[in-house]
Amino acid sequence: MPLFKPRRPLPETSPLPPPDQTDQQQTQQQKQQTQQQKQQTQQQKSQPKQQQNGRSNGQQNTKKTAALPPPQAGEVTKPKLVFHCQQAHGSPTGIISGFTNVKELYQKIADCYGIPAADILFCTLNTHKVDMTHLLGGQIGLDDFIFAHRKGVAKEVEIVKTEDALGLTITDNGAGYAFIKRIKEGSVIDKLKLVVEVGDHIERIDGTSLVGRRHFEVAKLLKEIPRGASFVMRLVQPLKAGFANIGPRSDPRSGSKKGLGSGKQTLRFKANGQAQVEDVDDHATVAIEKINSLLENFLGINDNDLAAQIWDLGQGKQNTMEFAEAVDDSDLESFGFNDDFIFELWGAITDAKSGRLKRV
Length: 360
Prior knowledge:
alpha+beta; seven-stranded mixed β-sheet; 7 helices
């Protein structure tokens, strides 16, 4: 009997790899697992970012869309308002824009021609002549042609006030120059028409400078001169040249283009210093003309801006009392309009609204 039992045979197994090869496989598996974990982590992190980016892109697109909306059918962008001008005594045509009141307009014209703005007495629309029916006032048609009248010869005339009224209608250019707009036929001034003319700037009365004065201040000063007194009035007439019978040269390329001043919209200068494009209101036009005629009789002045302000005050008012209260609460209160004159103004406003006033 053998002292030792025979050794039981071992089960067949795959041969073990060498120690180095086993370590390498384990290391590779760990690396793969680590990479997979990193990829999963990155994917989890990237999903919120993609959603956030999607929202951000959406917001950016929304902002862009809000800032630059797609053009709609019939929508027209506002063009830059550009006006043509000349010096009334003759000059090349200039182009001006970017003004919101009369003073800025004069400055633009002065810059265009390299002259002082103080050299411009007044402007007319669509005519180079001293025609007070075409005087530039509180509004300009979008296709109006502007003519600037510059200072010319200064002259002095001694006047004896033989009547209570001199027969002058005075207006101003909105920039400090009062000038003669109309001379009543048969009046004291009409007898001096060879010297005193429509369009003359009233620069001085005796030793008092009137530069910078409003038209109603000048009219009041002349009215306060006692009857029978004499005074010296210094005038500056518009610059004249040999262009009396020459109009603006037409553009041969224009073809059948509409004539000057045929537009239906105007650039209106507001009292707050702003300018606004408005449609022409026929009722307002005839009302302003009538109100101006009343102002001539009451104050001896002609002022489209003042007349337009009175017309605006009458909007929305139901009767004379409401209109009178609106006048008293405005800066027009300083003019001292009496009740009869307020009633006449209200009559002009209501007649214009109802269509009873016709343009002359």
